[in-house]
Amino acid sequence: MGARRVAFINEKGGTCKTTLAVHTAAWLASEKGRRVLLLDLDTQGHAGKSLGIDVRGSSLTMADVLVAENIEPEAAILSTAISGLDVLPSNRSLADLPERLAAKPDRHRLLRQVIDELEARRDYDVFVFDAPPSVGLVTLSIMIAAREIVVPVALTYFALDGCAEIVQTVEMVREEYGHEDIEVSLVVPTLHRRTRLAEEVLAKLEHYFAGSVASPLGFNVKIDEAQSHGRTIWEHAPSSRGAQMLETIASEIWEKRAR
Ligand SMILES: Nc1ncnc2c1ncn2[C@@H]1O[C@H](COP(=O)(O)OP(=O)(O)OP(=O)(O)O)[C@@H](O)[C@H]1O
Ligand SMILES: [Mg+2]
Questions:
Q1: What is the three-class DSSP state of 8?
Q2: At what angle do helices 137-145 and 110-121 cross, to 10 degrees?
Q3: Number of domain units in the chain
Q4: Which atom of ligand 1 is least distant from the CA of 242?
Q5: Cα–Cα distance, 10 to 28 (Å, whole number)
Q6: 259 falls in which pLDDT band (50, 70, 90)?
Q7: Residue 163's CATH number
Q8: Is the beta carbon of 9 within 6 A of some atom in ligand 1?
């Protein structure tokens, strides 16, 4: 059994993908003693920023690793203030990736090759992917590289839009790319408030994804504050409700083995 490969994917913006990716990665490193690599695949660079890393600088990023054939992935990996947690950052330079890789027929598999190499050469226990709010080359590459897909769904009116598409895309990746191991392992309801609409959307999620719905992530301003300080919630406000909720969800993701 190789390293776990967990991706946080939803094409809709602002569904807490980055928050959950960063906190799950940090929790696995600090509480479970795992060696974790967090891979930022978003031009916004929020995964790195959430951990206090200045991603605008000229250091190597994911785009360099995927485009340049002579750059080893290790050269772009940074350690973080959290022991056991490394990050491979992104920034704006990822924006023109599809054009830069257009001539490469195997472009969808490049990320997977990078992860396979890292898995063989380094002792990471878990790879955590933070996906962008879009569909396209990057999200498809993540699906081909990952095994467990976690879908954070904000409990708003349009929440269910996109969920069915993600399930269909996972099916497509399984069949067309021969990636038998991939599955939607959990759906995480996010930005939960006790409104009738939120409860209705939650009930629908529990119906469609029976047995695979995590505890909801309620609204807690400390989580936003922590990110603005480049720290995790456990560093910023360890006794907050946000800290408790994110720990519960991280442990549910960890317990939910893919198969
Ligand atoms: N439980 C929460 N309560 C309050 N604010 C939150 C909570 N979770 C996340 N946020 C804030 O909501 C915003 C969006 O969250 P986040 O960046 O995790 O979403 P995302 O899905 O990664 O967004 P994008 O699609 O742009 O990548 C951030 O400012 C974050 O700090
Ligand atoms: Mg994000």
A1: strand
A2: 40
A3: 1
A4: 1
A5: 22
A6: very low
A7: 3.40.50.300
A8: no
